[in-house]
Amino acid sequence: MIRVVITGLGAITPLGNDVDTFWDNIKQNKCAIDNITKFDTTDYKTKLAAEVKDFDVERYIDKKEAKRLDQFSHYAIAAAKQALEDSKVVVEDVDINRFGAYIGSGIGGMSTWEDESRNLINKGNKRISPFFIPMTIGNMAAGNVAIAVGAKGPCLSIVTACATGTHSIGEAYRLIKSGGADVMLAGGTESCITQLGIAGFEALRALSFSKDKDRASIPFDNARDGFVMGEGAGVIVLERLEHAQSRGAKIYGELVGYGSTCDAYHMTSPAPEGEGAARAMQVAISDAGIRKEDIDYINAHGTSTKYNDENETKAIKTVFGEHAYKLAVSSTKSMIGHLLGAAGGVEAVICAKTIEDGFMPATINYKEKDPECDLDYIPNIGRVKEVNCAMSNSLGFGGHNACIIIKKFTE
What amino acid positions are annotated as catalytic residues? Predict the structure, then answer.
């Protein structure tokens, strides 16, 4: 049986542009949500977002090359290079035909799309950049990462909205388990804090209109009124166990289970009672070959929208029964907002660090209990406790549900 382990972590986030900084801020219950600075929000109801700050793209990409890439690719390359460096994989020592990248984006190069649309309207078709298409299309995160690190194995860009990052990791795990690769970079990336991105989600009534930075992204809180947009990238290195052991790699944890389902119900609303999400969790537990009682911690999708949080809570109860009330559940979106296609990648990094450090992050700024959301959401203060098995949920528009389970590694 092929086992799959996590040997490297990389993250570009609103709470820090490397894993150590990000994790330290998570442990300190810091909130990255602030006023939008990327454009003038005068005509917008939405005033807040969780922006990546002080990101130096030239640490990872040549200045000239960076100008030919959208920011979602910048973030992906940076997180991937961090993860690869952390793993200490030497590319020259691996079979590059068995080294690949599954890195997705929910939307792709939205800022470039906006800029070039303005050029078309204001200056005409002859002023469109020749790099417009390769900068914009969603597959270029995976493609550009592969180019940057020399990975010639399987390379895919999965697009399942907010489940993208978790699906990318799950499918990379399946690929290694099936014998199709030795080393994979996997995760998600997103950069959609733009005029069109905010306007679109605002029109859907999906965003919080709160002007209070500490009461905008409040998952599971009775006063929640929508999600807060975030941005960034989370990428991990997945590796065949024997391959990792042969080079003496540090192992953060073992990826043991993956579930993928579809609601087949509605474009944006979750299925009643969280039925599809429940099936994804059940599939992941079955795939892992563990008991539901073995799960210590769930990093919930927890978007801070009424229906997501309520239905995810119901799904957890469906799967875990009485054990649901013994589980620790939190949403780190309370600190960094919702990173859309990057969310699952960043939250996989969090789960790996949770297991490594024995620390469960909080759901911060939690005040008002919702009778429909009555689990232990680790309110406000993170918790020091050994975690042997962590679950991460991601649920996307279109009814896409993804769940992964990471376990403390034992020989």
Answer: 162, 301, 338
